[in-house]
Amino acid sequence: MRTFKTILVMCLSLLAFAPGRADTGQPLAPISERIQLHTQTISTTRFPATVPGKRPAAILLHGYQCLEACSEAYARYARSLAAAGIDAYVVNYYNESDLAALKAGTLDAAGYAGRFKRWAVAVRELMARIGAQNQSNGRIAVVGFSQGGRLAVAVAADNPAATALVALYARLPDPVELDADLKALPPTLLLHGDADTVVPLRGGEAILAKARELGTPSDLVIYPGEGHGFDFSADSAAAIDARRRVIEFLRSVMAVR
């Protein structure tokens, strides 16, 4: 029985990561999976690209406490990426301990830096898994929102597997959250509202300054009057523009035709 269950799990895992029939141009159904990594188990929902052949991928990282409540906003990004020829993975990088701490209001208490480093290790391992899949062309972007944006910076830092970085209303990781000084970043796009009171605009400006100090092609788009999570609207002009910019940037950097 154990052998059968092991084979079944392996088959389901291969099915989840196998390229879908992306030859019709129609959206493909998202595929959800729990993936066992060396440091923890994480949940992903993959939105397969609607083009055949090898293609790039983007990993989307959620904010501090915006998981289920923001799932449709992440799905809007993921569907747009898939339609643009990029496999999109919406990732829940919290484990059960993280979720319990979040519920108790202690996630960012003592030990937070250790959690943050574990998340970065897990996402980097996931990148390696994705890059090894048959449908991958080896180009992988990291897209993060708020805390997820800070995590995206940590994941992309000095990481040759990261082709592009997008951080929305984020700030630089604290030095204690990194294993070493930040020395390199991939091409970077930053988006921030100037009315953000959760992560003030100076957070995005600091990332931009660091990226330019490192010689990284980078840009910061500022949205006047917009606050934290402004792009989660389905139809506001700022949100539509933000999603368009993210898609165009990733298509350009990852050479999607």
Automatic annotation (TrEMBL):
Among its keywords, does the record have Signal?
yes
Keywords on record: Signal
Q: Which domain of life is it from?
A: Bacteria
**Signal peptide from the UniProt entry:** 1-22
Span of domain Dienelactone hydrolase: 124-253
Query: One GO MF term, please?
Result: hydrolase activity
For this protein, the record's PANTHER family field holds: ALPHA_BETA-HYDROLASES SUPERFAMILY PROTEIN, CARBOXYMETHYLENEBUTENOLIDASE-RELATED
Q: What is this protein called?
A: Prolyl oligopeptidase family serine peptidase
* Classification lineage: Bacteria, Pseudomonadati, Pseudomonadota, Betaproteobacteria, Burkholderiales
